Amino acid sequence: MKSKEETQVQLSKLVDMISPSAVFEEVKYNFIHFYPISEFNKIRVAYKDFNNLFNGSYPGYKSCNTKYHDKIHTMDTVIAISRLIDGYNLKNKKKLPVKEVEIALISALFHDSGFIQKETDARGTGAKYTLKHIERSINFIQKYFTKKLWFTTKKDVSISTNIIRCTGLSVDISKIKFNTPTERILGFMMGSADLLGQMAARNYLEKLLLLYHEFTEGRVPGYDSELKLLTKTIQFYEFVRNKLQKDFNGVHRYMKMHFVKRYNIETDLYESAIKNQIDYLKKILKNYPQSYKDKLRREVVILQTS
């Protein structure tokens, strides 16, 4: 008879998370359960543009050169919000409106576009924009929607702006002027997905070492060593739990419904994956503070850009 550990399903086993195309197919799968496939066309085009942007093929921009906030991190976020939307639609009699869902998914694709340097930017990497990447991302998506002529009204653009703004850790959510309750829910989902996606990633702890170097270049105060960042991650975990429940009104609860209905799994795999990560980190910090790198052995895949 298999042990509990042997029978437990791992989040990372459901989809090949180092393959953006595989992740995107899962996002489409979640979408078409509730919306016509034709409505997915804008998201498909945006996904192509997202790839071009991060690969250095988008006019006026360099390729992504931040190793934590990379293409894989973005897709971690996109699939997480896709699952939350699916869980919400499964749980409630009235599904989320397709137009707002389209805006939310496209916004998720470009929520970290603010880390991408313009072609004329010759100094450092995109990490130098860490403290202002959200405003740069908003600026990009506003121009992007104008260029595509998909969502052209002031309200449409403000939906995307508010959704992306919810990813700011220091943003006072109560001061965001949401237009509708639906927009607020999607904003809360976006903020939740950004946190859940990265912290549940199989190599989250290993990637924290890369995040330290981004923080250093971006002049983020309070992190003078890799070990300091790892130590503060324990506190960050408690901060995230509180933020998910209070600031984002507990919308992460819809994740479990997704896993129940789509995979017949009675567990929120994000919650369990994050808890396992933090438990392991606590063990490392307690027993191996001087040799922590020896205990962080999972591969970090850096996708090659053209």
- Number of E-state strands: 0
- Approximate shape: globular
- Helix residue percentage: 55-70%
Proportion of strand residues: under 5%
The largest sheet, given as strand count, sense and whether it forms a barrel, is: none
CATH topology: Catalytic domain of cyclic nucleotide phosphodiesterase 4b2b
Instruction: Specify the CATH homologous superfamily.
Output: 3'5'-cyclic nucleotide phosphodiesterase, catalytic domain
Structural class: mainly alpha
The end-to-end distance, rounded to whole angstroms, is 49 Å
Q: From N to C, what is the helix and strand string?
A: HHHHHHHHHHHH
- Briefly, what CATH class? Mainly Alpha
Number of domains: 1
| Annotation field: number of helices | 12
Annotated CATH architecture? Orthogonal Bundle
**Mean of residue pLDDT?**
93
pLDDT < 50 stretches: 1-7
Rg result: 19 Å
